[in-house]
Each structure stands twice: as structure tokens, then as C-alpha cells.
UniProtKB/TrEMBL annotation:
Protein name (database record): GTPase Era
Domain KH type-2 as annotated: residue spans: 200-276
Annotated segments matching region G4: 119-122
Spans through the membrane: none
Era-type G domain span: 3-169
Keyword GTP-binding attributed: yes
Subunit details: Monomer.
Organism, scientific name: Gelidibacter algens
Region span, G5: 148-150
Keyword annotations: Cell membrane, Cytoplasm, GTP-binding, Membrane, Nucleotide-binding, Ribosome biogenesis, RNA-binding, rRNA-binding
Chain's role: An essential GTPase that binds both GDP and GTP, with rapid nucleotide exchange. Plays a role in 16S rRNA processing and 30S ribosomal subunit biogenesis and possibly also in cell cycle regulation and energy metabolism.
Length: 293
């Protein structure tokens, strides 16, 4: 008997969805930072066993959209309800509600199995944990509730085993050696964007998009040329920094991660360009791969 299915992870920003997916897949597919809205796309991670294929889907954190880019991000979340065989709703200790009532209604009325994962329990005590389990048992009575520390690895294996049990019987959807549905350039873009999220403050990380214009793989080295898009000239100056030091730091750290990811030497060239108001431009958003309403 072979099992296969889509396991879609949703929740508010910063609940640890990407950390959990990377723990399941065993590779760093989704970028992880402490800032909200780190994940902008829906990213599939594929885990294969002898008798199963688990297709994990990490989606953007649920927010109330303020501009076109965020509308597109929420379209990825909506799509996660359409093809799920198992739905994972992640919350963290102290959280009380989902930021979108319509999504919450979909969860509580779901006909498919729902696992509610109560993450970051390493930051709580036993009394608080028991209170939170009681709260979510009443709010989402159709869910199986599991305490979790995705970062520390607590309960990750047990939840993984339970998901396999819930997968429907099915042949594999993807080749058994495939890790994700995303092309190589996507991970180059995301790795660079992660470093920008880590090192820059305020509006800068959210005004940035990455476009890898060249990706040439040779026997011992991959040569890449990526452009960091910003919305204003002032942002360009901040990204580059004094005598280019800030941009160089991004490049050095991204290159190290990419060499680990691809398993070979990487040569990365970074440039910064102004692309005015790209977050509100439907044509630009389509170019960067965002869903349209």
C-alpha cells in the first residue's frame, strides 16, 4: 500500500511554519527570520519514503492585506485549502485567534483531518500549556492537538508519523528524487532575501524583491548574477551601505548558504536597481511569480 498527499501548513505570521517544514524535509527550503511576512510564496517540500510521499506546503502567514503584493500572498493561502489532504493549523503559546475569520471558519468546518500544532511550548510552563490546550480544544473541536517545539525538535517525529497515517492511498505525485516544486533560481532569490530580512530594518526588507538573471552551472562552480530590486533611490543607498560594505555582507552570507545548498562552489554577483512601486504593480507581481486575484 502506497500513500501520498498534500499536507498544507497555515497560521499567523511568525508561528514557526517554515521551521517545521524544514524539519520534516531535512533541507532548508523555506527561509526563516524573526520578521513577519518572511514567506511570500507557497513552497512545496517533498518527503519520500518507501511507501509514502508527503507533499508539504508552506504558505505566507495570514494577514489583512494592505497592498497588491499582500493580496497575492493571501491568494497562496486560499489555494492551500483547495488541495489539502491533511491541514496543519499552527499556533504559538499565548495566541488567541487567527487574523482572518473566514479562514478560521474554513478550518473549523473542514472535512479533512486537521492537526492543530501548539508551537513554542519551550517558552511556556505546564499550567499555561494546559490552559492553551483547553482553549484550542474548545475553539477547534474537529482538530487533533499536539504540543510542539519545532525549533527544539520536540514532538516533530511523532507528528510526522501521525501525518503519514492520515495520508490517503495514492501513487506518488512527483518523482521520488524530487525535493521541491521550485526551480533553482527561486532558492537563490530566497537566500538573498533572507539575508536582507536579517540585516536591514523597518521598510527595507518588505520593499525588496530579488531577480536572478543568470544561473550557469559548470562542473565545479555555479555562476550567478542577481539583482536586488528596491522601490526608491534612498533604499538603494541603504542596501549598498557605506563603500558597499552592507551589500558585500549580504553577498558573502548568501554565497555560503548557497554553497551548502547546491553542494559546490558558488560565484555570486549582486546588483541593486530601483523598480518603483513594484509591490502595487500587477504586471511586476506576475513577473515575480505571485498569484493574481
Amino acid at each position: 500500500m502506497h500513500k501520498a498527499g498534500f499536507v498544507n501548513i497555515i497560521g499567523n505570521p511568525n508561528v514557526g511554519k517554515s521551521t517545521l517544514m524544514n524539519a520534516f524535509v531535512g533541507e532548508k527550503l523555506s527561509i526563516i527570520t524573526s520578521k513577519a511576512q518572511t514567506t511570500r510564496h507557497r513552497i512545496l517540500g517533498i518527503v519520500n519514503g518507501e511507501d509514502f510521499q508527503m507533499i508539504l506546503s508552506d504558505t505566507p502567514g495570514i494577514i489583512k492585506p494592505a497592498y497588491e503584493l499582500q493580496e497575492s500572498m493571501m491568494a497562496f493561502v486560499k489555494s492551500a485549502f483547495d488541495d489539502a489532504d491533511v491541514l496543519i493549523y499552527m499556533v504559538e503559546i499565548g495566541e488567541q485567534e487567527l487574523k482572518d475569520d473566514a479562514f478560521f471558519q474554513k478550518i473549523t468546518n473542514s472535512k479533512i483531518p486537521v492537526l492543530l500544532l501548539l508551537n513554542k511550548i519551550d517558552k511556556s510552563d505546564q499550567q499555561q500549556l494546559e490552559e492553551q490546550v483547553q482553549l484550542w480544544t474548545e475553539k477547534v473541536p474537529n482538530a487533533e492537538i499536539y504540543p510542539l517545539s519545532a525549533l527544539q525538535g520536540f514532538n516533530v517525529k511523532e507528528i510526522f508519523t501521525r501525518i503519514i497515517e492520515l495520508l490517503p492511498e495514492s501513487p506518488a505525485f512527483y518523482p521520488k528524487d524530487q525535493l521541491t516544486d521550485r526551480p533553482e533560481r527561486f532558492f537563490v532569490n530566497e537566500t538573498i532575501r533572507e539575508k536582507i530580512l536579517i540585516h536591514y530594518k523597518k521598510e527595507i526588507p518588505y520593499a525588496v524583491e530579488i531577480d536572478t538573471e543568470e544561473f550557469f552551472e559548470e562542473e565545479t562552480i555555479i555562476r550567478m548574477r542577481s539583482v536586488i530590486m528596491v522601490e526608491r533611490e534612498t533604499q538603494k543607498g541603504i542596501i549598498i551601505g557605506h563603500k558597499g560594505t552592507a551589500l558585500k555582507r549580504v553577498g558573502v552570507e548568501a554565497r555560503k548558504d548557497l554553497e551548502l545548498f547546491f553542494g559546490k562552489q558558488v560565484h555570486l554577483e549582486l546588483y541593486v536597481k530601483v523598480n518603483k512601486n513594484w509591490r502595487s504593480d500587477q504586471r511586476q507581481l506576475k513577473r515575480f511569480g505571485y498569484n493574481q486575484k
